[in-house]
Design brief:
Helix 3 crosses helix 7 and helix 11 packs across helix 14. It is built from 14 helices and 13 strands. It has two domains: about 240 residues, Aspartate Aminotransferase, domain 2 (3-Layer(aba) Sandwich); about 120 residues, Aspartate Aminotransferase, domain 1 (Alpha-Beta Complex), CATH 3.90.1150.10. A seven-stranded mixed beta sheet has the order 1-9-8-5-4-2-3, with helices on both faces. It starts with 14 loop residues before the first helix and ends in a 6-residue tail after the last helix. It is about 40% helix and about 15% strand. By secondary structure, it is an alpha/beta fold.
């Protein structure tokens, strides 16, 4: 076994990121200060929208989005099963019910036809997940949302900086959610954001992230006021200036990071072209894919996963279908047969290492180890 472990993903931190954080630590504001507004303005501009609201995690962003849309008891929200549990959990936080729609077999993105089949009189919103960094078919989803008078939310935690039909992720849905976890396109350590051009929704989410209070300490300091009012029940979901300092420098490198990921993906694609037992996911020509994940379908997935891990390759599986989790089985009575395409894919999918700093040497090691596990020669 090689002693050097290759993770499936990791952050890319550079000297200017460190200096930016240090400068903030030397400043007068560690939270609710000027860097929060600067980071939000930069995010909104990059997403092609009017407002960005930064929060403490991608999960907090999903929760804030559900709150802003007034999701509550009796409301249904359609979600895909191949996502992190937080996508569905945020609906539960508000008292709503997640309804699982199946995915398309080639891309594993939410299937608009399955979405339409799940719509009822109680449906209030659709959450589309840009699985692995590939944007969903937002034309079809917008048509459905408009036809049935539904809110459209994009869980773009994998696809910051990507685009659908040359329009940036963030501009297609009513609300778009991003994550800044270390394995995501950029990082703030932990963190998230919601972007929108709806001023009313933006205002609600800003209040929600700050205990339901209409102003934060930084805003009161600007006006010389001590007075504040709590107008609704909210949470402490604020993001600090320290984290925003890191986010600001990271954001300037986003397209470089994405291009690095695309180069890794292209190398994998070339290597696996001649091996029919290793099947990368399909990519639509209309999508600018960010390759947060590089997912392939393989036979005997569990055996191959073990082989890769034993060789020091940090393969992963994204994801166990959410409706398989014990919590959802007990709460909603979900189980096998609900989303057959996603369930079939789950038995085969494996995520290979991909991140901006992955060396060509390590890429070659991943390719050779996977081909060895499959029982095929390494392509030359």
């Amino acid at each position: 076994m090689d002693s050097t472990f290759i993770p499936y993903g990791r952050q890319q931190i550079e000297p200017d990121d460190i200096e930016s954080v240090l400068d903030t630590l030397r400043s007068n504001w560690l939270t609710t200060g000027p860097l929060v507004e600067r980071f939000e303005a930069s995010l909104a501009q990059s997403a092609g929208v009017q407002h960005a609201i930064v929060v403490s995690s991608g999960t907090a962003a999903l929760h804030a989005a559900m709150h802003a849309l007034d999701i509550g008891v009796g409301d249904e929200v359609i979600v895909p099963p191949l996502t992190f549990a937080a996508t569905a959990n945020a609906v539960i936080y508000q008292g709503g019910t997640p309804v699982f729609a199946d995915v398309e077999p080639e891309t594993l993105l939410i299937d608009p036809k399955s979405v339409e089949s799940r719509i009822t009189a109680r449906t209030k919103a659709i959450i589309a997940v840009d699985y692995a960094g590939q944007p969903c078919d937002y034309d079809a989803l917008r048509t459905l949302a408009d036809r049935y008078n539904l809110h459209l939310v994009s869980d773009a935690c994998h696809s910051l900086g990507c685009a659908w039909r040359d329009q940036p992720c963030g501009s297609q849905a009513d609300l778009t959610v991003f994550s800044f976890h270390p394995v995501k396109p950029i990082t703030t350590g932990e963190g998230g954001a919601i972007v929108t051009s709806d001023e009313v929704l933006a205002s609600r989410m800003r209040t929600f992230r700050n205990h339901g209070i209409t102003s934060d300490h930084g805003q009161r300091a600007k006006t010389g006021s001590w007075h504040y009012e709590m107008v609704e029940l909210g949470f402490n979901y604020r993001l600090t200036d320290i984290q925003c300092a890191l986010g600001l420098t990271q954001l300037t490198k986003l397209q470089r990071f994405i291009e690095n990921r695309r180069q890794v993906a292209a190398r994998y694609d070339t290597a696996f072209t001649q091996n029919p037992t290793i099947r990368p996911l399909g990519v639509r020509p209309e999508a600018h894919h960010g390759y947060h994940l590089y997912v392939v379908r393989v036979p005997e997935r569990d055996r191959i996963f073990s082989h890769l891990r034993e060789a020091g390759i940090g393969a992963n599986v994204h994801y166990i279908p959410v409706h398989y989790h014990p919590y959802y089985r007990k709460l909603l009575g979900t189980g096998e047969g609900l989303c057959p395409v996603a369930e079939s894919a789950y038995r085969e999918i494996i995520s290979l290492p991909i991140f901006p700093g992955l060396t060509v040497e390590d890429q070659n090691r991943v390719i050779a180890t996977l081909c060895e596990a499959i029982g095929q020669e390494t392509p030359r």
